Amino acid sequence: MDKLDAIEKTQVTQSDVISFHDYSWPETFERRARQMLRYGRPVLCTEYMARGNGSTFDGALPIGKRLNIAMFNWGFVDGKTQTRLPWDSWKKPYTWDEPTIWFHEVFRGDGTPYRPAETDLIRRMSLAPKGAVPAPRLGAHAGHGAARP
Question: How far apart are CA 53 and CA 122, in angstroms?
Fold first, then answer.
């Protein structure tokens, strides 16, 4: 806590839980997660999972599960919010083609998974005991590629 300024110290000491956002690669996510755990409070990652940034389910979920951090991804079903589109869509509209990799979202508008390997991973993580990370399925690469067969 020595490196925190006065406002940050107040935030940490007066909080019942610590929440953070992280849209980076797994190595950076884990460092940030461990930093949050140092304060001895329950930790919630309230935003993660931006495929184009390197933040994927297969990269972040196992870390959160192992460290007992609650995980909330931004986006669920493709719809009005259009969060399948990357942040650069403000400058580069995707009017003719879909982005190569969806940014957020787990399901297509019709309810089918964008990437079945991801929904399988989420299901297996949810069913595993607290702190236990299930072994990856052979041939499942949830964070790579994007095209639906």
Answer: 19
